């Protein structure tokens, strides 16, 4: 079952990239034929990214001559890094002060970065994929968590507070999917090849991936898993503890790496991690043992949105300084206005990102086209789409007026404007902003309704796959899981097997004690079976008093012990009924995928035959089917 499409769309939609710039850059970045000019064009539409990109290009780590043009910076930093930066920055910009209260955005990004750097470092030793690709996939491999924090802020907050240790499990219970599934599907949506997107699904528990042990997907999953464990430990416990824990992690052994090699990668990643954290305005990771990363308060200079006509207006005034003194003085006098003035466009854009102005006034430029260009640039960004823009023009010049309106200006004023008119115009601005605000709230509400609908649809899907009496996944779910496991097993040539389990003489329970007691027995047996299965196995109620265990990674040989464990567990179960202790037994039939089985149904028929043989043999025993024959499994019985 995959994450509902609308949730992926809504999450991607809300990923804070100015006018989808991050995704557009990623698209370009994946195309080999992309030129620096194409990328430059996109980057330049995002002032924050441009500024930060330049900062990186000119930082000490890249050395040599400083660059100033964006295209020079892109050449210096490398097109791939620009793509990575675009995604990382754009996600941070808006999410840093998101609404999911229990979700630590700062720590999330700090850990994602650390994971990306460690993954790239380890990747250089393992040679599993180009290190830069490993970097960006690891950076985004927990993006599903950010998406859930964005689309279900309140629900996720509750889950983080109530079940911090098994968040994914709690999410599955609440939403029907977990953040790891969402991450993998979002990565696939971004166009990341499956071999690099799928590790996101299993990086928290690589042993559950079901991939053939030495296959490339399994190795990649272990690589992401190790990078995750190390980065998680780094943000929570610091370097010293993390280094000590390397020996206890299974990842290095699975990847053929020594403790020393992993430790070296960790050391190398740390200085880069600190540098990047600085660049991204994240709190500098602490290297002290046991020290948790202190979240810094996000710079939220923007005030609440204008709701009423008296609310305070944040105004930016841009022009060739000196000539606008009069206007600035008037704005200072106007009611409820805070105006800041800039003569430098870059400075103004930087300030705009910080304070999110509601009104921008463009002064007269000697060269009118410069003002128009600036207006078009503002309109091309996410925040700039909704800003109210006024231009100071000579109203007798009709051509000029037409040009400024075409560039995206909302209203024109004369340089000789007086206070009464300015005040009155502010009323109009406030009215427009209030309308916009209502519209945005309505949109957010609609989006929320769509998310809720998708969730309830998902819950219905989950219900349709769940047995109501026992809470186990039902026959439909079993068939779907078997189909999936079957194709994976055929591809990987790994064995897969099933156990058919049937309660013995169950009819007698019903006949003697009544149906409600029969139901209780079914529930108790289901509970005991569920408690016995491993994480890599699934247990299903197929109907009536019949259950199925599916192992997608092991054959009969591996299942024999599990089968005997289940048999004993149920035989030892005592269910209190009318002051009596009721005891039941089960019969079990095993089968595995064999070359003559064309489909998984054939394997099920084989398991059924084995079960039938177990019943015929006297029940409370195990039979298996192999090479068209049934065999009694003789396990030394315990009393
Ligand atoms: N209480 C209860 N009984 C059920 C449910 N579903 C099926 N049954 C009963 O399960 C019993 C199955 O009986 P049989 O198929 O004859 O099998 P059995 O008595 O277990 O005998 P063997 O399988 O041969 O050991 C029937 O009496 C069904 O009515 C259920 O959800 N609740």
From TrEMBL:
Signal peptide: none annotated. This is diguanylate cyclase. It is an enzyme of class 2 (transferase). PANTHER family: DIGUANYLATE CYCLASE DGCM-RELATED, REGULATORY COMPONENTS OF SENSORY TRANSDUCTION SYSTEM. Keywords: Coiled coil. Pfam families: GGDEF (PF00990), HDOD (PF08668). Transmembrane segments: none annotated. Its EC number is 2.7.7.65. It catalyses: 2 GTP = 3',3'-c-di-GMP + 2 diphosphate. Residues 556-583 form a coiled coil. It comes from the Bacteria. The lineage of its organism: Bacteria, Pseudomonadati, Pseudomonadota, Gammaproteobacteria, Chromatiales. InterPro entries: CheY-like_superfamily, Diguanylate_Cyclase, GGDEF_dom, HDOD, Nucleotide_cyclase, Rev_trsase/Diguanyl_cyclase. SUPFAM superfamilies: CheY-like (SSF52172), HD-domain/PDEase-like (SSF109604), Nucleotide cyclase (SSF55073). GO terms for molecular function: diguanylate cyclase activity. Residues 289-304 have a biased composition (Low complexity). Residues 282-309 are annotated as: Disordered. One of its GO terms (biological process) is negative regulation of bacterial-type flagellum-dependent cell motility. Residues 494-627 form the GGDEF domain. The keyword Coiled coil applies.
């Amino acid at each position: 079952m995959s994450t509902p499409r609308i949730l992926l769309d809504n999450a991607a939609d809300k990923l804070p990239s100015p006018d989808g710039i991050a995704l557009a850059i990623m698209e370009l970045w994946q195309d080999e034929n992309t030129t620096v000019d194409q990328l430059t064009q996109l980057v330049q539409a995002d002032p924050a990214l441009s500024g930060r990109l330049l900062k990186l290009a000119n930082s000490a780590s890249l050395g040599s001559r400083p660059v100033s043009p964006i295209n020079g910076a892109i050449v210096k930093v490398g097109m791939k890094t620009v793509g990575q930066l675009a995604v990382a920055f754009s996600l941070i910009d808006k999410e840093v002060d998101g609404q999911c209260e229990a979700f630590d955005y700062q720590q999330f990004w700090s850990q994602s970065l650390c994971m990306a750097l460690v993954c790239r470092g380890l990747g250089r030793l393992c040679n599993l994929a180009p290190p830069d690709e490993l970097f960006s996939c690891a950076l985004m491999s927990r993006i599903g968590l950010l998406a859930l924090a964005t689309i279900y802020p309140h629900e996720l907050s509750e889950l983080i507070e109530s079940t911090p240790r098994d968040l994914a499990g709690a999410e599955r219970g609440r939403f029907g999917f977990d953040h790891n599934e969402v991450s993998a599907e979002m990565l696939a949506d971004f166009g990341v090849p499956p071999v690099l997107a799928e590790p996101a699904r299993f990086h928290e528990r690589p042993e559950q991936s079901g991939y053939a042990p030495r296959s490339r997907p399994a190795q990649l999953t272990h690589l992401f898993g190790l990078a995750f464990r190390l980065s998680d430990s780094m943000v929570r416990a610091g370097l010293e503890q993390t280094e000590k824990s390397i020996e206890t992690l299974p990842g290095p052994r699975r990847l053929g790496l020594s403790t020393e090699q992993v430790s070296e990668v960790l050391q190398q990643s740390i200085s880069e991690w600190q540098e990047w954290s600085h660049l991204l305005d994240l709190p500098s990771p602490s290297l002290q043992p046991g020290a948790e990363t202190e979240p810094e308060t996000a710079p939220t200079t923007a005030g609440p949105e204008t709701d009423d006509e008296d609310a305070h207006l944040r105004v930016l005034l841009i022009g060739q300084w000196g000539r606008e003194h009069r206007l600035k003085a008037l704005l200072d006098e106007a009611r409820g206005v805070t105006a800041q003035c800039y003569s430098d466009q870059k400075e103004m854009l930087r300030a705009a990102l910080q304070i999110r102005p509601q009104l921008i006034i463009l002064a007269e430029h000697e060269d009118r086209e410069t003002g128009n260009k600036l207006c078009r640039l503002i309109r091309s960004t996410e925040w700039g789409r909704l800003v109210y823009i006024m231009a100071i023009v000579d109203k007798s010049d009709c051509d000029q007026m037409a040009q400024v309106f075409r560039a995206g200006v909302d209203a024109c004023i004369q340089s000789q404007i007086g206070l009464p008119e300015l005040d009155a115009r502010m009323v109009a601005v406030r009215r427009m902003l209030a309308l916009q605000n209502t519209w945005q709230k309505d949109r957010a509400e609609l989006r929320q309704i769509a998310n809720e609908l998708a969730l309830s649809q998902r819950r219905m899907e989950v219900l349709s796959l769940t047995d109501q009496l026992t809470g186990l996944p039902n026959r439909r779910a079993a068939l779907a899981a078997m189909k999936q496991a079957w194709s994976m097993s055929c591809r990987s040539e790994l064995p897969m097997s099933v156990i058919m389990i049937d309660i013995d003489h169950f009819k007698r329970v019903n006949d003697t004690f009544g149906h409600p007691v029969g139901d209780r027995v079914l529930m108790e047996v289901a509970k005991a079976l569920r408690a016995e299965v491993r994480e890599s196995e699934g247990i299903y109620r197929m109907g009536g008093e019949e259950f199925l265990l599916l192992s997608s990674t092991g054959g009969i040989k591996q299942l024999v012990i599990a089968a005997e464990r289940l048999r004993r567990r149920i035989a030892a179960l005592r269910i209190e009924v009318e002051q009596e202790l009721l005891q039941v037994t089960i019969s079990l039939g095993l089968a595995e995928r064999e070359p003559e089985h064309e489909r998984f149904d054939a394997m099920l028929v084989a398991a059924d035959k084995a079960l039938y043989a177990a019943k015929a043999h006297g029940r409370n025993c195990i039979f298996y089917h192999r090479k068209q024959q049934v065999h009694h499994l003789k396990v030394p019985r315990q009393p």
